[in-house]
Amino acid sequence: ADSAVVEMADQVAYLTGNVVVSDGNGVMNAGKLMIEYERADSAEALPGNNVKRISADGRVRLKSGAQVANADSLEVRMADQLAILNGNVVVVDGQSTIATGSLNIEFLPDNRNGAQGSGGIRRITAPGRIVLRSKDQTATASSAVVDMVAQTAVLAGNVRVEQGSSLLTTARLNITFLKGGGSARGPGGGLGGGIRQITAPGKVRLTSQDQVVTADKAVVRMQENHAILSGNVVLSQGKNVVKGCELDFNLATNFAKMKSCPETGTGRVKMLFTPKSAGDQ
């Protein structure tokens, strides 16, 4: 840092100007930094080795492996293995990006020393509006929880997922990521591999070019451009409507195959076709 002040009685250190903090886990850059230490045996003693809390502002940058996080301010609670980022938060991991206003990051214990410190990211929680970009896919929601170890995410509230000309909207979405090459230390690695599958357990609407599908739930395998929608499925294209129980939908070719519901009614697919008028020819 450019300058530092250590308050012996309070066991607090203040660093200002081009602050750089590094250890075996990563590097942090900030304009200003406050480090609060665990209480030493006497007020005259130098601060102990155990850091209790860190707070930083002046645009903060955290880097650990391939993961980079930027925010306006940061608070780290060492005992809780928790970092709280606020203000214009952007996290980049390979080809995946998270953008939001506030983010809580929970860390894994550092198994190398069995003490305080980060062994990689365990979970990321965004309590407010969030944008998740991964390769050619973009997902937005009112809140999100990302499990870095399990390589999964749960998005809730006005969820939208876009890929090319396809748009999926629902209230809640479960995302499974491709393995990201281990940029986050620990069993899961990072999220840099992109989205493998999304599952909408509730009402869902899928739009692809001029086709619109609504259903009770959906499973989309993103890498294969393949979706299966089930439960009260309605497929419409212009004025033409097809109703059934399950729809097998290719998002790349727009080819759709509808299955009937044999356990109810006649077991037939219902179709309504409206011929084009002379003016539409």
Strand content: over 45%
Spatial extent as radius of gyration:
25 Å
CATH topology, by name, is lipopolysaccharide transport protein A fold
Helix count equals 0
CATH superfamily: Lipopolysaccharide (LPS) transport protein A like domain
> What is the correct CATH architecture?
Sandwich
What's a quick, concise take on this entry?
The protein contains no helices and 21 strands. The chain has strands at residues 3-7, 12-23, 26-37, 51-64, 67-77, 82-93, 96-110, 115-126, 130-134, 137-141, 143-147, 152-163, 166-177, 195-200, 204-208, 211-215, 217-221, 226-237, 240-250, 256-259, 270-272.
Question: How does this model look, in words?
Answer:
With 281 residues, this protein is mostly beta strands. The protein has one domain (3-201): Lipopolysaccharide (LPS) transport protein A like domain (lipopolysaccharide transport protein A fold, Sandwich), CATH 2.60.450.10. 0% of the residues lie in helices and 65% in strands. The protein contains no helices and 21 strands. The chain has a 21-stranded antiparallel β-sheet that branches. A hairpin with a 2-residue loop joins strand 6 and strand 7. The protein is elongated and about 80 Å long. It starts with a strand and ends in a 9-residue tail after the last strand. Mean pLDDT is 82; it is low at 112-117 and 182-188.
